User: Fold Shikimate kinase from Temperatibacter marinus.
Amino acid sequence: MIRSRRHKNRRNFGSRRPDRQGAGRSGRSTSQRQGSRNQSTVKLDKPIVLIGLMGVGKTTIGRRLSRSIGVGFVDSDHEIEKAAQMSVAEIFDSYGEDEFRAVERRVINRLMQGKPKVIATGGGAFMNEETRALIKKEATTIWLNADIDVLVERTSRRDTRPLLKKGNPEDILRNLAAERNPIYAESTLQVRSSDGPHEIVVANMVKILRAYYKKIRKSHPPEGEKKAKES
Ligand SMILES: Nc1ncnc2c1ncn2[C@@H]1O[C@H](COP(=O)(O)OP(=O)(O)OP(=O)(O)O)[C@@H](O)[C@H]1O
Ligand SMILES: O=C(O)C1=C[C@@H](O)[C@@H](O)[C@H](O)C1
Ligand SMILES: [Mg+2]
Assistant:
């Protein structure tokens, strides 16, 4: 089992609670403070979990989405790297993918506790049966999707994804899309991550989220509202 270098005596290092990470003296995270300036705060009942292939924008779009709706943001790959004090590539090299997936499940479980926030996952997280069951039970999921040629270009910008080093990145992404897309399609919502400014994708996400919350709150009004209607 991977052990945190910072927490050598702690087993299951992925279980540390993150609630106040990135929080300033106000106790609110940077993205919460920035979000409150944008006047588009959305009240979340559950975390929003972003899923999709490598390079689709889970991290960069997710961070912007969190600012835009005034909630916190965390990224499971970054949290794993922080806890292990190793990069994702080093974890794959030293411990293998199975161990990475086990740590990823624990970290995502921890990240879903506490105040609802936006959580960007690694591209393979939702493919793990246990992790998927946990995410589907506890979160609203958004599948970010894009064409393969767009993903090839975006992932070519950084050499940090171990799965893409095993051969031709375009072939690997095509195979992963064929295998994963039917599973990603189990998400609550889907959004295209087309090329162009990130803000356009974020605005589209906010629109789709608002429509979804409106629909579910109409069919399942919060307890307070239900009582008011009954009386
Ligand atoms: N909608 C978009 N338009 C233009 N560029 C984008 C868009 N979304 C992401 N990018 C760019 O693509 C690259 C990869 O994005 P990002 O790291 O957010 O992907 P990811 O889904 O988190 O990937 P991974 O699963 O490997 O963590 C970054 O350079 C990012 O700025
Ligand atoms: O798609 C995947 O399986 C991965 C995506 C990255 O975010 C990392 O989580 C890791 O490189 C594996
Ligand atoms: Mg990412």
About this structure: The first strand starts at residue 48 and ends at 51. The chain has one domain: 47-212.
